[in-house]
Amino acid sequence: MNFSRFNFLGYSKSWWLVLVVGVVMVICGFAYWFWPVAGFAVASQIFGWLLILAGIVQLLVAAGPHFPRGWGWWIAGGIIDMFIGFMLVRSIILSEFVFPYFLALIFLYWGITMIISSVNGHKGRYWWLYVINGVRLLLY
Hints:
Blueprint: H1 15-34, H2 36-63, H3 71-90, H4 92-120, H5 127-139
Helix pairs in contact: 1-2, 2-3, 2-4, 3-4, 4-5
């Protein structure tokens, strides 16, 4: 049986990078299981730092030589992301309050995206796995 057909992320020449990320995520999952309060505080702070990083990337894309259409929106989005990121990094209580809502919105988005893409028939023979994953994500 060829298990490469079950890959939901597509085909990649950097399979080892996906493997390393998976192993690190399993280790972090066990650490989060044993120390949930500290893990939640760390995860919410990482979320703030990732927002700062996303804001920097948006500003660099907008200021680059091949700036996209609507570059003003990229600049506005980058400034807003950096502002919110700095607020979350500054206050652990605020970041712990916002983090669950962000995760809920991401799960809703991924679930709806998977269901819509499976109905459109873009996923080939295993379209039903996307329906199952989409419904599972919506139920979280």
